[in-house]
Batch of 4 targets.
Target 1
Amino acid sequence: MTAETSQTLDRGLRVLKLLADTDHGLTVTELSTKLGVNRTVVYRLLATLEQHALVRRDLGGRARVGLGVLRLGRQVHPLVREAALPALRSLAEEIGATAHLTLVDGTEALAVAVVEPTWTDYHVAYRAGFRHPLDRGAAGRAILAARRAPAAEPAYTLTQGELETGACGAAAPLVGVTGVEGSVGVVMLADSVPERVGPRVVEAAREVAEALR
C-alpha cells in the first residue's frame, strides 16, 4: 500500500470481495484468517459495512454480501430484472401463473422481478417489491433449502396457502451466481401445484442464473 491509500478502506473492500467469492458466507474467524488481522478488526469492519447494508449476517453468524451492494448502482436492479425477464416471461406464459425472481434482503425475501401471464382469466397479483419472511412461501423456503444443502442439485419447493389463502407456489434456488442468493418461482390460485410445474421452475431458475453470471 502507498501513503495515499486507506488501510481500513482497503480491508473493507477485501471483505466484500471475499464474501462475493463465496455462495455460503464466511464467519468472523474465517475472515480474520483470510485477511491476516485479528477478530476485533473484522467485527468493526463488518459492523460498518452492515450499517450501509453492504454486508448482512445470517442467524448462524455467517457474513454475506448485502443488497446494499446492488443499490450502489441505481441501474443494477433494472439490469437484474432485464436479465431475468425472458426466462420469467416464458415460465409465466407456459404455466399460466405469475412468475417471479426473489432475492434475499436481510431476513426477508424480496421480489425484484414479476411477470404475469397474458392469457389467463385470473391469476395471483404479485408485485415487485413484495416482501415476506424467508421461512414462509416457496420462494424463501427454496433459498433456505439451498443453504442447508449447497452442494446438492437444485430442487424445487412447494407450498400451499402460506402467503395467501387459496394460493400455492413452487420455487427453485438460483445456483452458481456469486454473491447473490435468490430463487425463481410461480404462484397460482389452485388446490395444489401441477406435477409438471416443479421441474419447469428448476429449468427457469437455471436460465436466470446463466443470465446473471
Note: The chain is about 40% helix and 20% strand.
Target 2
Amino acid sequence: MKDAFGLPQSLLVLGGTSEIALATARRLIARRTRTVWLAGRPSPALDRAAAELRGLGAEVHTVAFDALEPEAHETALGKVFAEGDIDLVLLAFGVLGDQARDERDPASAVRVAQTNYTGAVSACLVAARALQAQGHGSLVVLSSVAGERARRANFIYGSSKAGLDAFAQGLGDALYGTGVHVMVVRPGFVRSKMTAGLPEAPLATTPEEVAAAVELGLRRRSETVWVPGALRVVMSALRHAPRAVFRRLPV
C-alpha cells in the first residue's frame, strides 16, 4: 500500500530499461518502494537494470513484455499482479523513430505508432483493470510535449504521443472515483540515450528531474505534470499560434 504521502511500496515499470523509469525507481526506492517489477524484452540491459536496483536494497523481478505483442500483455502483467498488489504502474516505453526515414518507409512509421500508441493502449487497459480489481493504485503515463501540437520535425512521433496523451486523460476520467489514480507526465526534451546526437531544445531536462516531478505529482495526486513546469505556459502559447505562424517557428 502507499504511505501517507502517496508514495508506493510496490512498482511495476513497463519499459524496464527506460532511463526516466530507472531514475524514478531509484528515487522511489530511496523513499519507500521495496518491490519492483521491470517489464521488458529479455536482454542484458534489463538484467543490468534489475541488478542495479537490487543493489539499492529493493526486491526486484523481471517479466518478459513487448509493446508490439498486445495479445500477450494480459498474460505477462497477470503474472505480476498474481504475486500481490501493485501500488504504481509506470508506463515508460516508447520509441522516437527517425522522422526522415519514417516518412520514406511507412512500415517504420507504423512501428512507431504501434509501439507508442497501440501497445500503450493495450498495456494501460490491462494495468488499469488490474488496479481497479485490487481497489487502489496509480498509473503514471509518460507522454511528451511533442503531443501538444504536431511539428514538421517529428510529427510521426508527436502524433503517436498526442494519441496516447488523449487516451490516458480519458482513462483517468473513466477511473475517477474507483480508487485508481491516473497521472500524465509531459516532459520536454530529455537528455538521454534516446535523444543523443539531436540538437538540444530550450528548457531541456534530465531523467532525474523528470523522476523528481513524478514523485511530487504522486504526493499531490496530480493529473497532469509538465517537466519543467514552465512548458505549460510555452506550449499553451504554441498550441494557439496560427498555423501559418507556427510552421515558421524554429521549434
Note: The beta strands are 10-14, 35-40, 59-64, 88-91, 137-142, 180-187, 224-227.
Target 3
Amino acid sequence: MMKFALKSILVATIALSSAASLAHNHSENSLVANALNYEQRAAKNSERDKFRHPAQTLAFFGLKPNMSVVEISPGGGWYSEILAPVLKDNGKFYAAHFPKDATGFYQRSRSEFEQKVTQDPRFSKVIVTEFAPVTHTELAPANSADMVLTFRNVHNWYMGKNKDGALSAFKSFYTALKPGGTLGVVEHRLPEARADDDQKSSGYMKQSYVIEIAKQAGFELVASSEINANPKDTADHPKGVWTLPPSLRLGEQDADKYKAIGESDRMTLKFKKPL
C-alpha cells in the first residue's frame, strides 16, 4: 500500500511539473506571438516572418522572458521589435549597435534605432551599447548575459576584417556571456563544396567555418537546426546574397525569379559557453 501511495505521489508530482512547464512555455510563446502580432508592426516586417521563422528560431535558442540578452548589430531593429517587448518586464535587453563615432550609413542606422528607443514604447527599456569587431568589443558587462544573438552578421565581420574580424566578434560574445550562457547564430549559408574565397564577397559563409571560428573563441556547439533552410537558394547570384529579397539589388531585373526563391538559405546554430 505504501509503495502504491509513493508511486501515486510521484506520478502526481511529475504531472504537476509537466503542467507547469507547459504553462510556462505557453506564456513565453504568447509573449513572442504578441510581439509578432503587434498592431502597429510594419507590414514590410511581418512579411519577412515566413522566411525568418522568428518564433521557432527563438524557441530553438531557448529564449526566456527573464533573461539578460544581447542582440548584435540590430540594424533597423527587425528582431529587436520582437525581443524588446518579450524581455521588457522581467529581463534585460542590450542592443549592441554600431559605435557612436561611426559615419555614413552606420551612423544613420544607429541614430534611427536610438529614435525608436526614445519614441517607441516597445523599446523603452532597451540598453544601447556599441559593437564593432576589434575596436568596440564591450557589448555588456563581462559574464552578465544569459544569451547573445546574432542574425545575418558574420559575413560582414569576415568581409571587413577577414578571420580577425569574425574571431574578435565571437571572443566578445564569449566575454559577455555567463558560464553556461547561449550564443545563437543565424547566417547565410555557402555550400561546403564552394571555394573559401567565395566568402569574401558573396555574403554567404560556410557552416563549417562559422562553427570553427566559434570553437576557436571557446564555444561548444550544442545543436544546429534547419528552421531557416531554403533549398531553393543556390547561393550563386550576380550580386551575392543581396540579389535575393529583401534587398533585390538588381532592381526589376529578374525580380520575379528572385522573389520566387525567397530569402537566403541559412544555418541556425546554438552554442554555449562552457561552465
Note: The chain has nine helices and eight strands.
Target 4
Amino acid sequence: MASFENLLYAPDAATGILTITLNRPSKLNALNAATIEEIRQAMQLALDDAQVRGIILTGSGEKAFVAGADISELAALNDINARRAAELGQEAFCLIEESPKPVIAAVNGFALGGGCELAMACHLRVASDNARFGQPEVNLGLIPGYGGTQRLTQLIGKAKALELLLTADMLKADEALRLGLVNHVVPQAELLDFCRQLLGRILTKAPLAVGMVIDCVNAHYDKERNGFQTEATLFGRAFGTEDFREGTAAFLAKRPALFKGN
C-alpha cells in the first residue's frame, strides 16, 4: 500500500473506491508544497491502478477539509517562485478535474482558500452541515492561485463568484448548496457513508462512458476545444466499446449490465 507523509491512501478492493485523506490535523490540513505534490502523486497512482474505480477526497478530523494554504510557507515566496507554486498547484488539481475516474470531495469542515479550490477541482462535492467555504486570499493581499477564480465562476456564476472573491466572505453549507457550489449537505456523521453510496451508484455505470461524460463537460470550459465536437466524437467512440454492447444487450434482456470498462 502506498505511503505518504501528509495524506492517507486507503483503497478498498471490494468496492473499487479509494479514499484519500489529507492528514495534517495540527495544521487543519493546510496545503503546503509537499502536500500538493503528494496529492499529485496519489492521483497519478490512482489513475494507473485498474483496481481503483472511483475516489473520495476528504480531510482528517472534524474541523477542516483543508483550512487553506500554509501561510508561513507562502510568506517566504517571491513573485517568481510564487508563480511556479501556482502552476504546480494547478497541475495537481487539473489531474483531479480531468480524471476519467469520478472524484467526490467529502468536505468535512472548513474548505478555505486552497481547500475550496481543491474541493472545486473534484467532480462532485458533498458537504457536512458544519462545512464552510471561502476564498479569503484578498485578506492577505493575494488572489487564488490554484484555479479558484476560474472554477468558482464556472460553478456559481460571475456575479456571485466576484462577490465572494472580493469580499472574502465565508459560505455556510446550506448557502453553498443553494448556489450550486455543493451537490449535497448531510450530517457530518453520515458524510463518508453518503459519499460511498453516491460513488457506488456511479460505479454501477459503464466506466468508459463515465469518463467520456467528464471529458465532455470539461471540454465546455476549455477554450482550445469545442464541447459539441468532443461530445459527437466520444458519442461515436462509445459505440465501439464492449460496454456499449453489454449495456444494450442487458437492457433488451431486462437484466443488470455487467460492465468491464472496455
Note: The mean pLDDT is 96.
